[in-house]
Design a protein that fits this description.
Elements: H1 9-17, E1 21-24, H2 34-45, E2 53-58, H3 60-63, E3 68-69, E4 74-76, E5 85-86, E6 94-99, H4 101-112, E7 114-116, E8 132-142, E9 152-158, H5 159-163, H6 167-170, E10 173-175, H7 176-182, H8 187-194, H9 201-216, E11 222-225, H10 230-240, H11 249-260, H12 266-278, H13 288-298, H14 313-321, H15 323-339, H16 353-363, H17 376-391, H18 400-414, H19 421-430, H20 439-446, H21 455-462, E12 472-476, H22 485-490, H23 495-504, E13 511-515, H24 516-522, H25 527-534, H26 538-547, H27 560-578, E14 605-608, E15 611-614
Parallel strand pairs: 1-6, 2-11, 4-7, 12-15
Antiparallel strand pairs: 1-3, 2-6, 3-5, 7-8, 8-9, 8-10, 12-13, 14-15
Helix pairs in contact: 2-4, 7-8, 11-13, 13-16, 15-16, 16-18, 17-21, 18-19
């Protein structure tokens, strides 16, 4: 491999702009975070080496056999994460970057584009919450003390952030792209003069240093591979991409699939399916790792581990040929999980998707399965197993690949007519992954709290009457607003008891699932007041208590601990029932209705899991 003459950052970015440097499809997508970009520019300004780069000169005949992509210069984590495909003219060789894509893209973004990330605490999925931010450098001087050890103060700033600054402060924040566009020579002085900083020695020193590193210093060193053997190129790619942000085995699988699939663009298919699945219901958080692992399992690859030896041309051809049915199985599976009331936060182990997709694929089920009356019993069994497998700790951790292979075998042997719950439970117990309830497990479950990912699943499995296709709120039975220090002191509760109440305020024993409209109407009323208003007959009131495993309701916050312990006992019985066990039923006496108090304002709400969590 020849070592090419060193060049400047500006000259390299000009090659990218002219599309003389592009990306081979075996490259993963851009993954660097803003702090990594900032650290790269800090290193450049300090004169630190930024590593060498590796390119591949692809002759025109070879280039027509592969796909290529352009570099990003503007990244948006909402809707601009994927590199645009690059059509290579048939008579033109190309130079593709094998190592250094993350650094070169970061330089391109910092000097030519923008980086858009979600505003802190803002809602996901809303374009306005992802403002474009341009890299700026402070011309005031060195950065204040910081844990990252940065010498220069570089930040991605939006127009709104700049507008909020005092004009005197704002003029010291120089957009880094202005350094590139100013070119070498006097162009930079004109930029500073426009900011009335042409005679500011410190400002000129920092700006000139960055300009020198970009335009004058030959800091970019390329090795160039010219061999046209794709196997050799893949081997080089795998070896050199072992540093930086670690190249996972799923990255390798996607890279090799992209290079070897003949009938479709693997990169586009996988990323497109991830985006589609994540938009199901109120949203999920699946990754390409999960999609590709599912592909290995469903396509029948004997060893489903992410190991290079499993990425053979034969396995990739099988994955290519079966892709449409694998994608259809995943769509149905994720639709079912949404029907079960699950979403990104409450799906505490995304790997549970794989055996469900295997079952769907094995039986050849389609979207009608979600609604068919004839499948209601099977869906109920599937939902119960899913929720149990999510709330029992340790199921989807160590030994996952072996568990997935055993689940695949069990479904193949016993899953022709329905989901084989008993056979799967027996197999899992034999692998040390038992879903059997124990006293220790019950205590663990009973200690779940509001906001825990498992909480929705626990409530849904204990109360199968809940129609999880509707949006439900995880509701505090005794409202948090009535269990704060001020309210409890007003109720005459001593300080020691207040601390105990606060520690148990968000516990599972004070939670239930209510549909959205019910929860809004309940607001911050005490439970007895609200229930007697809504359920006006004694029969309806008793049915509500029995349905939700509620003891005698209270209207005095001082009685909270008594209520909490009584509900905990009733929930223990429901947990045993959900796991197919029994215990002498406990039934608490029901209280009579009393006058409701004034409704205080509804507390701030937050969204989580497959439901909306409200601090009521």
């Amino acid at each position: 491999m020849p070592y090419l003459p060193a060049t400047t950052i500006a000259a390299t970015l000009a090659q990218i702009e002219r599309k003389d440097l592009i990306l081979p499809a075996i490259q993963r997508e851009y993954v660097w975070k803003p702090q990594q970009v900032v650290a790269l520019f800090d290193s450049i300004m300090r004169g630190y080496p930024i590593g060498s780069f590796l390119s591949w000169r692809v002759e025109q005949a070879t280039a027509q056999e592969f796909r290529f992509y352009d570099f990003l210069n503007s990244y948006n984590e909402l809707d601009m994460r994927h590199n645009p495909e690059r059509a290579v003219p048939p008579n033109q060789p190309v130079v593709a970057v094998l190592d250094g894509q993350q650094r070169l893209t970061s330089l391109n973004i910092g000097l030519r584009g923008t980086y858009a990330m979600k505003k802190k605490y803002a809602w996901s999925g809303i374009p306005e919450n992802y403002p474009a931010r341009t890299l700026h450098v402070s011309l005031h001087g060195h950065a204040p003390g910081n844990a990252a050890g940065l010498l220069y103060d570089l930040r991605f700033l939006s127009e709104a952030q700049l507008a909020a600054l005092d004009p005197e402060e704002a003029r010291y924040w120089l957009p880094v792209p202005a350094v590139l566009s100013a070119g070498p020579g006097m162009g930079l002085w004109r930029v500073l003069a426009e900011r009335d900083l042409g005679n500011d020695t410190d400002a000129m020193e920092i700006a000139s240093l960055l300009a020198e590193k970009v335009h004058s210093e030959h800091s970019v060193h390329f090795f160039e591979e010219t061999d046209q053997d794709i196997e050799r190129v893949l081997d080089i790619f795998i070896r050199v991409n072992s540093g930086g942000t670690v190249l996972s085995y799923s990255d390798l699988l996607l890279s090799i699939a992209t290079a070897q699939w003949k009938n479709r663009d693997a990169r586009k298919e996988v990323h497109g399916l991830v985006d589609e699945l994540n938009a199901t219901g109120i949203g999920f958080r699946f990754s390409k790792d999960l999609i590709l692992k599912t592909g290995l399992v469903l396509s029948g690859v004997p060893d489903v581990a992410f190991k290079v030896k499993n990425f053979t041309a034969a396995n990739m051809a099988r994955l290519d040929a079966m892709w449409d049915e694998i994608a259809a199985s995943l769509r149905l599976t994720v639709g079912l999980l949404s029907d079960f009331g699950l979403s990104g936060t409450s799906l505490t182990a995304s790997s549970i998707v794989i055996p469900l997709a295997q079952y769907v694929h094995h039986r050849g089920l389609d979207q009608s399965y979600r609604e068919a009356a004839s499948a209601a019993g099977d869906r109920a069994a599937l939902k119960n197993w899913v929720l149990r497998a999510l709330i029992v700790p340790g199921i989807w951790g160590s030994g996952l690949d072996q568990l997935l292979q055993s689940l695949r075998n069990t479904i193949h042997e016993h899953g022709d007519a329905g989901f084989p719950v008993d056979e799967i439970d027996t197999m899992m117990a034999g692998r040390g992954k038992s879903l059997t309830v124990t006293d220790e497990l019950i205590e663990t479950i009973l200690d779940y709290e509001f906001g825990d990912g498992e909480t929705f699943g626990v409530l849904a499995i204990m109360f199968p009457h809940v129609n999880t296709r509707n949006i439900h709120h995880v509701d505090h039975i005794v409202p948090r607003a009535r269990l704060n220090r001020a309210s409890l002191r007003t109720a005459g509760v001593d300080d020691g008891t207040i601390e105990e109440i606060l520690a148990k305020r968000d516990g599972l024993s004070n939670l239930e699932l209510l549909e959205g409209s019910e929860n809004v109407s309940k607001s911050a009323k005490m439970p007895l007041d609200w229930a007697q208003e809504v359920y006006t007959s004694s029969e309806a009131y008793s049915a509500y208590l029995d349905r939700n495993a509620l003891p005698e309701l209270i209207y005095d916050p001082a009685d909270y601990l008594m209520f909490y312990e009584a509900r905990r006992s009733l929930l223990r019985t429901r947990i045993l029932r959900a796991f197919g066990l029994s215990e002498p039923p406990e039934k608490a006496p029901h209280a009579s209705a009393t006058q409701a108090e004034t409704i205080p304002p509804l507390d701030e709400s937050i969204e989580a899991s497959g439901v909306e969590l409200l601090d009521d």
